[in-house]
């Protein structure tokens, strides 16, 4: 008996049996239902991802478009692969494939990979949550342990931070325990100005108020007019006056330098002395006394 004859005989035996036809029909129906259910799950997940990405754009942590697209695509792929894998397993179960040995082999393989690459898995999981939770974004100034700088790249496994002196620190995500983000909210510039005891205190405070008001009008990084709080400390040879200014995120150092320069100019122009160490030398002259 040839192969074609065997196939024809098999089809005649199966398709002539009403019970087997009914079973085959319901198997096909179940497979179709499983397939379309998987497609619907993926569509719903895509809508949720798009909604989540739209909400992230309104977050105080600004996320660039490329990073947002990367997150959306990453989540879409994870959900799509998971749903498709479950769909394939369910379909194989419907056609009579024994899934027990298959799942057991996959479990052993996954366990072996997990033991062999624990640090890699930890880095990937931590990197995913850093991206998902918007803990920091590209361009933010952050500090991780002793490393402080601007975030150049956020990867699934590592984060690159460039310090202000030019060094690039590559930090595995699994080693990130605590992060300080300096770019989320406004910063505060604090300037202490020393004047001598002989200076007119009220006049000095008035000069400082006029100066910081001018600096506020000239600099866009200051969000509201600086405040002259008054005498902060009474020292051995000077009075210290404190000024605070609310600035845009991570601009307090620039604002403080500008205010220091302008305050020095205005104090000199107003004749108000800034104390500094002085050395006074007394020369004792002795005249011989003649008897």
Automatic annotation (TrEMBL):
InterPro entries: LSM_dom_sf, MS_channel_1st, MS_channel_C, MscS_beta-dom_sf, MscS_channel_2nd, MscS_channel_C_sf, MscS_channel_TM-2, YbiO_bact. Pfam families: MS_channel_1st, MS_channel_2nd, MS_channel_3rd. It is a multi-pass membrane protein. Keywords: Cell membrane, Membrane, Transmembrane, Transmembrane helix. The chain crosses the membrane at residues 20-42, 74-96, 102-121. Residues 190-274 form the Mechanosensitive ion channel MscS C-terminal domain. It is found in: Cell membrane. The keyword Ribosomal protein does not apply. Residues 120-183 form the Mechanosensitive ion channel MscS domain. Residues 77-118 form the Mechanosensitive ion channel transmembrane helices 2/3 domain. It comes from the Bacteria. Belongs to the MscS (TC 1.A.23) family. This is Mechanosensitive ion channel family protein.
């Amino acid at each position: 008996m040839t192969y074609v004859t065997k196939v024809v005989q098999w089809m005649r035996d199966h398709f002539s049996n009403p019970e087997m036809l009914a079973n085959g029909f319901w198997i096909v129906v179940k497979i179709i239902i499983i397939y379309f259910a998987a497609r619907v799950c993926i569509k719903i997940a895509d809508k949720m991802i798009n909604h989540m990405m739209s909400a992230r754009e309104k977050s105080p942590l600004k996320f660039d478009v490329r990073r947002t697209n990367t997150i959306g695509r990453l989540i879409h792929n994870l959900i799509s692969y998971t749903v498709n894998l479950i769909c394939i397993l369910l379909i194989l179960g419907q056609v009579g494939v024994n899934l027990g040995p298959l799942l057991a082999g996959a479990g052993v393989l996954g366990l072996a990979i997990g033991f062999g690459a624990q640090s890699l898995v930890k880095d990937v999981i931590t990197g995913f949550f850093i991206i998902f939770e918007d803990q920091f974004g590209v361009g933010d100034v952050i500090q991780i342990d002793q490393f402080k700088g601007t975030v150049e790249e956020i990867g699934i496994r590592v984060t690159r931070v460039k310090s202000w002196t030019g060094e690039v620190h590559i930090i595995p995500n699994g080693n990130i325990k605590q992060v300080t983000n300096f770019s989320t909210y406004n910063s505060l510039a604090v300037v202490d100005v020393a004047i001598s005891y002989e200076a007119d205190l009220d006049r000095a405070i008035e000069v400082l108020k006029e100066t910081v008001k001018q600096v506020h009008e000239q600099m866009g990084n200051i969000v509201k007019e600086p405040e002259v709080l008054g005498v902060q400390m009474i020292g051995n040879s000077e009075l210290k006056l404190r000024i605070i200014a609310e600035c845009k995120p991570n601009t307090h150092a620039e604002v403080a330098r500008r205010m220091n320069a302008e305050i020095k100019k205005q104090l000199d122009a107003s004749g108000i002395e800034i104390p500094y160490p002085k050395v006074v030398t007394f020369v004792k002259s002795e005249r011989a006394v003649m008897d």
